[in-house]
Amino acid sequence: LALALEDGVVRGGALAINRTAVLDESRDFRVSGSAPLLDVDAWGRFLGEYFALQLPGKSADAEAVAIEPAAGRAAGGESGGDEEGETASFPPVRIEGLHVERLLAAVREFRDVMISLEQTAGGYRLSAATGWLEGNLVLPGGDDAYRVELERLNLSGLEGLDLSPGEEGPALEWPDVDVTILDLQSGERQLGELAFQLRSRDGSLVAG
Question: C or N terminus of the chain, fewer CB within 10 Å?
């Protein structure tokens, strides 16, 4: 871990997992390296509880997206800003080719995944690549639908996944998602392109 500090404020940084972190001139926080395990759900809960950070979308608002420790806001908004009361924000997070041996997301396990994350205007772009899938998840700001843009999807990779709904917990309410698949495969068969929309209605996910 390496941090670039300026007047006691983090202006940039680098976290290299199982590697040596090197700072550059960019004003962001870069994550790279190789991790044996990444639990996306656990990290999401941590960011939501400690930093009050939500992914951009229908449930996010301008205040929720700002990265500021929740404990500091609860204590009256004291967050270590300058004399004019401005809040010091954490630099944008950028993941560069992070290799994950076991990725846990949405109560599913994926193996040998290469992921990248960059902040876009008002949102994020998450890229993932594994042996049977390659593409992007675009999380725009505001009320725009999420976008799944897959360059390649081989349905044979889904065979080892348990896609049945869990017996515990409330039904998930998904945001609107527009899906595009440029190269759909099933084993050695080429199935062409596919585009559809996913909408969550009363606890059910509807494709159309």
Answer: C
DSSP 86: P
Which 3 state secondary structure label does DSSP give 69? coil
User: Distance between CA 87 and CA 59 in Å, rounded?
Assistant: 22
- Residues sharing a CB contact under 8 Å with residue 169, sequence separation 6 or more, in sequence order: none
Query: ∠ CA(82), CA(86), CA(91), 5° rounding?
Result: 95
Closest CA to 130 of 106, 146, 151: 151
Residue 60 burial (10 A CB sphere; 0-12, 13-18, 19+): middle
The pTM for the full model equals 0.68
Single-letter code of the amino acid located at 151: E
pLDDT in tens, the chain (208 residues): 888 787 778 778 888 888 888 877 777 888 889 989 888 777 767 656 655 444 444 444 433 333 333 344 344 444 444 444 444 577 788 888 899 999 887 667 888 999 998 887 778 888 999 999 999 999 887 778 889 999 999 998 887 665 555 555 555 567 888 999 999 999 999 999 999 998 877 767 788 7
Q: Which residues of 163-188 are buried (b: 16+ CB within 10 A; e: fewer)?
A: eeeeeeeeeeeebebbbebebbbeee
Q: Residue 205 has which token pair?
A: 């996910």
Among left, alpha and beta (phi > 0; psi -120 to 50; other), residue 25 is: alpha
